[in-house]
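Record now logged underneath.
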Amino acid sequence: MNYLIKYTNLKKMYKKRKLIRKYKRYSFTKTKQIKKQKVYKNKILKILFILSLILNNFGFDYFNNKIRDPFNNKSILRIFIITHKDFENFRYNPIYTIVADDKSELKNKYNLKIIYANEGKLYNLKRAYSEMSKLHYIYELYKNGSISSKYVGLNHYRRYFNFTDNIPDMDSIFENYDVILNEPFNDSIGMQSQYCRMHFCRDYYQMINIIKDIKPEYYETALQANHLKFIHCCNLFIMKKEDFFKYCEFEYDILFEFDRRNNFKTDDDVLATARNSLYHSRIQAFLSERIGNIFYLKHFKRRKIFEVGLFNYTEKGISGSFKKEAIYLASNVIFISLIISIFLSLVFLFIIFLNIYHTKYK
């Protein structure tokens, strides 16, 4: 009798333990399935996100179309990329706006807003003024209120500030600095001698005389600038809108008076004066760089200038640190994104296979 009771009790205990084990196994399997579903969901979202990045690199940007409008006057910063021809752009940040001469000169391949300056006042002098012809058109748009922003920047189609696409917070920079410029060119002979060595002295002397006549408050600063050994070339900058207005007013007042005294109305007039040299026909552009340095010296203290390096791109190829970034942004991002998406897809399929295998043979 005792043996029978013990056997019955053992049988009950065995069933109970078996039931507990079964419940635990069921609970564990169910929890595991829920976790797997969450993992699958996260993987799918990640893959979709990577695919969206790939599409964005190819120029499909559905979500950011509205913020890419340069005539949205709520913008904090606008950097204008000046160009006179088609070029290989790698800037996809909505703060950039391309400014070109004519629609026929650019292919419709950029994921950026394009402004055409063919109706600008300096269109007939676009070679002589170079980037300054389109900058004047931008200045006019700001003056009439068509465009507005807290900060205004200028880049060229082959020269860019070394920000990559991680644009720093402008408000934090301008708390301690007055302007953002490219790193200066060092020439021990001074700005006036350097200009005379590269171009025609008569143009520089005439510029100084014009400043003395129509901008006498800048004359002493201009004389000091003659001996500048650190020269900010290329007319690249980021500055406050108020300073941008002062800068453009100073630049174009002098350049327009220079045109009036030399009877310059078209590029052909300038070309004839420059002894039929296409390079030296960019008189106003070369002078504008020196006029800009006079303005910087007058309005901004040296320690208040935030200097940034440049990426340079030419038709012959990519040079300097630009090479690393251009290749990365133009090709490697797409390639790496594709590799990652393929890898995650394989991982996703492998997890599904393991789940099926575990369900079948558990």
